[in-house]
């Protein structure tokens, strides 16, 4: 792998992990669109899934006391089912359409967040089923489940501290499911990156989380969340336009 590209990938992962630690979300939203532009949708999303597994484990260790485990178990099986549907979609979809799917999915999920905050309140199992399936599908196809889950949290008025903590095992499940299901259907690139880059990626994640822990004392989670949304929107827009031009 080109050293400049590798350095860029690690920098993107570090930034995403930092925002993830401060805001509770951010890694997938920042990393998946950026890596889609750098190395293609199929490889970029899979790389993002791998980095998100490490990030979720590290952040979960920090926030584990506030996890709402009953809520996690309500969503986890549905996320796995959604991942299976997403893996099949990745397997049969052309690269240019994957760019479109990544861009449109991220932008659509981001657009739903403020709408849900101001206009809707939902209850019941139907909402949980819908968001679980959607999050699993989006995470597998576009590497971004957090906006859909955040929209759901806003709609049910889920307390932020508990949501941010519970999101970590949810994202861990979503990203592991994405990797396993894509491997099962042959949708994971076999030459994604050399094996020796993974310790560097893990180090970038840990460095980002450590930096985020320091910044969390000075930067509000709302400000970090706004930055993550802005970066994700720019990356998703470019990916969408690139895909549309290539179709």
TrEMBL record:
Top-level lineage group: Bacteria
Keyword Heme: no
Predominant localisation class: membrane
Bilayer disposition of the protein: Multi-pass membrane protein
Parts of the chain that traverse the membrane: 34-63, 75-94, 100-116, 128-154, 195-215, 227-245
Protein's UniProt keywords contain Transport: yes
Subcellular location: Cell membrane
Keywords from the UniProt entry: Cell membrane, Membrane, Transmembrane, Transmembrane helix, Transport
Family, similarity comment: Belongs to the 4-toluene sulfonate uptake permease (TSUP) (TC 2.A.102) family.
Protein name: Probable membrane transporter protein
């Amino acid at each position: 792998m080109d050293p400049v590209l590798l350095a860029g990938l690690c920098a993107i992962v570090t930034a995403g992990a930092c925002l993830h630690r401060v805001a509770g979300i951010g890694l997938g939203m920042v990393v998946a669109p950026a890596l889609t532009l750098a190395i293609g949708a199929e490889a970029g999303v899979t790389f993002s899934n791998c980095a998100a597994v490490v990030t979720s484990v590290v952040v979960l260790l920090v926030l584990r006391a506030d996890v709402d485990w009953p809520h996690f178990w309500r969503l986890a099986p549905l996320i796995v089912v959604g991942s299976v549907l997403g893996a099949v979609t990745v397997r049969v979809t052309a690269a240019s359409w994957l760019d479109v799917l990544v861009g449109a999915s991220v932008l659509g999920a981001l657009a739903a967040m403020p709408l849900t905050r101001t206009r809707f309140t939902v209850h019941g199992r139907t909402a949980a089923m819908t968001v679980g399936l959607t999050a699993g599908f989006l995470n597998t196809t576009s590497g971004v489940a957090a906006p859909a889950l955040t929209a759901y949290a806003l709609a049910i008025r889920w307390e932020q501290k508990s949501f941010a903590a519970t999101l970590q095992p949810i994202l861990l499940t979503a990203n592991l499911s994405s990797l396993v299901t894509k491997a099962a259907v042959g949708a994971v690139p076999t030459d994604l990156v050399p094996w020796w880059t993974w310790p560097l990626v893990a180090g970038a994640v840990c460095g980002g989380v450590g930096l985020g822990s320091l910044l969390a004392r000075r930067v509000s989670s709302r400000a970090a969340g706004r930055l993550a949304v802005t970066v994700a929107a720019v990356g998703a827009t470019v990916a969408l336009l690139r895909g549309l031009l290539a179709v």
